[in-house]
Design brief:
Layout lengths: L2 H20 L10 H10 L9 H11 L6 H26 L4 H12 L2 H7 L5 H19 L5 H10 L7 H15 L7 H11 L4 H9 L11 H8 L13 H18 L5 H14 L1 H19 L11 H25 L5 H9 L2 H15 L6 H9 L1
């Protein structure tokens, strides 16, 4: 990658990270925040599916000697989410997208509500964002004939954080099959070993349980209890158990969330980008589309209140389609402006940045957690 392209990454990522830090939750938040922060600090066994990779990374974050433990782990979420934004930018550049479109698309993703909301609190989903984008970066390389080995390892590793990444693993696997076809068969044994190596962090659950942590959720000391824990057995009563009407209502809310993430007006560009990428890189486009469909279907069939973050794998794939579409439109506009002045062409070329700026302004108050002491005050008043 050229130096100028790297510079865009080094400019966008610190900017997004700074905004996340500015809007970071000042203390413990609602739902999983307290359990996750304490679990990372004490190396507990977290609620299903265990999140061993997140626990170990979170433990490293708690060793940084600044602020409170919960602030350190929340800052890890911000850092990972900002890294995910940078990875989308890199993926765009690898796909031949112009720097302005790739950068603007990265900002649009980073300042969308689903990403921003998990970037400023103690949550596992920022790590999922990074793993999902690493998978697509690796898949893009494989689609052009690159090595499969890193992709196999990352596919296993992605499953050690949050199972919503399974939709991405499925899409990536399909893209690989379409790229390699019969050549893939002879490589399966090595790829299987690397995949198993990727999921090896799950051994942490058994080993740490036997060491006797302060809290071992599910107590996964045996094979049976381990399987129950990593498959989220206790949560399966809320999965694929709703009526058709409830699923349709969830689908409407999910579609609305995704449309808002693309500022509504950019939604047609996403579909155009899917068609354009299909013409350019068929296998990759099919893998992305399947991943988006599976992720969306999983989210709308899971009945929990805080479902927004389950759409992240779908949002990532749509962001890729969106920047491919926007880049195509911008290229067509520039060709039609060949006889127009240099200044006018430069303005058009940089216009996509407005989307990222608009997302920042619209979501600053609703996604940011600055000044959020609800959980802290509730606990303090209870005591």
């Amino acid at each position: 990658m050229r130096t100028a392209s790297r510079l865009w990454v080094w400019l966008v990522v610190p900017l997004v990270f700074a905004v996340y830090l500015l809007t970071l939750s000042p203390t413990v938040g609602l739902i999983d925040s307290g359990e996750l922060a304490a679990g990372c600090y004490l190396l507990n066994i977290l609620h299903p599916t265990g999140y061993p990779l997140y626990t170990m990374l979170g433990r490293l974050a708690t060793l940084v000697p600044v602020a409170m433990v919960v602030n350190r782990v929340a800052a890890l979420s911000a850092l990972l989410a900002a890294a995910g934004v940078g990875l989308l930018l890199l993926l765009g550049l690898r796909l031949g997208i112009s720097r302005s479109v790739a950068g603007a698309s990265a900002l649009l993703l980073g300042f969308s509500f689903p990403v921003w909301a998990v970037a400023v609190d103690v949550e596992v989903y920022s790590l999922t964002l990074v793993l999902v984008l690493l998978l697509w970066l690796s898949a893009e390389s494989v689609d052009k004939g690159g090595p499969l080995f890193i992709l196999a390892y990352l596919s296993g590793l992605a499953l050690t954080n949050h199972m919503s990444a399974a939709s991405t693993v499925l899409g990536v696997a399909l893209a690989v099959v379409l790229a390699y076809r019969r050549e893939l068969v002879r490589r399966v044994p090595v790829l299987a070993v690397l995949f198993l190596l990727g999921i090896s962090p799950y051994l942490f659950l058994v080993l740490r349980t036997r060491a006797g942590p302060l809290l071992a959720w599910g107590n996964p000391y045996s094979l049976e209890r381990f399987w129950w824990h990593v498959t989220g057995k206790q949560y399966q009563v809320w999965m694929f158990s709703q009526s058709f009407g409830e699923v349709m209502r969830n689908a409407g809310r999910g579609a609305g969330l995704l449309a808002r993430s693309f500022l509504y007006v950019l939604v047609p560009i996403v579909f155009y980008g899917a068609v354009r990428l299909f013409r350019q890189r068929r296998g990759l486009a099919i893998g992305l589309a399947v991943s988006a469909i599976v992720a969306f279907a999983y989210a709308v069939n899971y009945s929990i209140p805080d479902i927004e973050s389950y759409y992240l794998p779908c949002l990532v794939t749509l962001a890729v389609f969106g920047m491919v579409g926007l880049d195509g439109i911008l290229a067509n506009v520039e060709r039609r402006m060949s006889n127009v002045g240099t200044v006018a062409r430069a303005v058009v070329r940089q216009a996509p940045w407005l989307a990222g700026i608009l997302a920042l302004l619209l979501n600053f108050r609703v996604a940011g957690k600055q000044g959020d002491y609800v959980a802290y005050d509730c606990a303090l008043n209870t005591l």
